[in-house]
Design goal:
By secondary structure, the chain is α/β, with parallel strands linked by helices. The protein contains ten helices and 13 strands. About 40% of the residues lie in helices and about 25% in strands. The two termini are about 30 Å apart. Bound molecules: N,N,N-trimethyl-histidine. The site of N,N,N-trimethyl-histidine (AVJ) has 12 residues, from helix 9 and strand 11.
């Protein structure tokens, strides 16, 4: 049935600009959205299968077991919007019960998205699937013209929101509010604060998939930006920072070294780190207060084993 793929090409151009800005800053960092090239998407799926990383499995189990309650709390919707939809696996349960006329999915990983979107359109012939290859952090508002009218539900699962600082969460939730409209809804899943030891293990899995995922960023820069990172001279390092309420992932330089990115030299001291991700953990109340500043009020809350799903209207 109807499947439309729209490509917003801005994402690719931003990589070089963002990477050079991040590598020339006083403390080096690269936005975590750049993890997700094709190998990165596959590595993230492998992380989700590791015994130490329960986040995805717990959310899946929670959504499956409470789907009826969640659907009842949502009521009727015409359009589901999923920013950062990735492989589009999570939205299927909602499509089964809510039967919206339209599904709009967007992701910076355009290839993964279009393959998954096409499959969704085959499996849900009554749903018009609009897949938009875009960095929604920049272009979210541009998606509005591709949405049909009617009641909208923004679905943002998987603790993707954890990549944003609490201040940025507020800003993003405001933009979701504008996109959803006054009668719109937001269904959001996030990881809860828990025993730091458990969190630490989740980002340091024994099989090394998280390390490979982190280092794959350098593989990507070598390929796409003609960089010359030597992977044996960087080490995956992830830890929970309780006061900040976040996991930090870094790549630590194991040597004093000079790396080239698109012809530009970038110096790393021995022990200097490239900060690649923050993954914030919240409490339900904490999140509700942030959402309130973006004009969202809580309509429902479901919790299981350190993970929460909240519905806002
Ligand atoms: C996809 C952002 C939810 O923060 O746990 C997994 C990404 N990073 N292991 C997370 C990730 C390292 C993940 N999110």
């Amino acid at each position: 049935m109807p499947f439309h793929f729209l490509d917003f090409p801005s994402a690719r151009d931003d990589l070089l600009v963002d990477v050079l800005a991040g590598l020339t800053a006083r403390t080096k960092s690269i936005p975590p959205k750049y993890f997700y090239d094709e190998a990165g998407c596959r590595l993230f799926e492998a992380i989700c299968r590791q015994p130490e990383y329960a986040l995805c499995r717990t959310e899946q189990a929670l959504m499956a077991s409470r789907l009826g309650d969640i659907a009842a709390a949502i009521g009727e919707v015409d359009c589901i919007i999923e920013p950062g939809a990735g492989d589009c696996r999570k939205v299927r349960g909602l499509l089964d019960v809510l039967k919206p006329a339209q599904l709009a999915i967007m992701d910076i990983a355009g290839n993964t998205l279009s393959t998954a979107g096409r499959k969704l359109a085959d499996d849900y012939p009554a749903v018009a699937v609009t897949a938009i290859g875009m960095d929604f952090i920049h272009d979210l508002e541009a998606a509005a013209s591709h949405l049909s009218s009617g009641r909208r539900l923004v679905y943002y699962p998987g603790s993707s929101i954890g990549n944003f600082s609490p201040a940025d969460v507020a800003g993003l939730l405001e933009r979701f509010r504008k996109l959803a409209g006054n009668d719109g809804l937001l269904l959001i899943g996030f990881d809860l604060k828990k025993d730091p030891e458990l969190l630490h293990r989740a980002y340091n899995d024994a099989a090394g998939f998280t390390a490979a995922f982190n280092l794959n960023l350098l593989v990507r820069l070598n390929r796409e930006l003609g960089a010359d990172f030597d992977l044996s001279r960087f080490r995956h390092y992830a830890f929970y920072h309780p006061a900040e309420g976040r996991i930090e992932m870094h790549l630590v330089s194991l040597a004093d070294q000079l790396v080239h990115v698109s012809g530009q030299g970038v110096h790393f001291d021995l022990g200097e780190t490239l900060h690649t991700e923050n993954s914030y953990k919240f409490s339900c109340d904490e999140f509700r207060l942030i959402a309130k500043t973006a004009d969202w009020s809580l309509r429902g809350e479901w919790e299981k084993d350190g993970f929460a799903v909240q519905l806002y209207g």
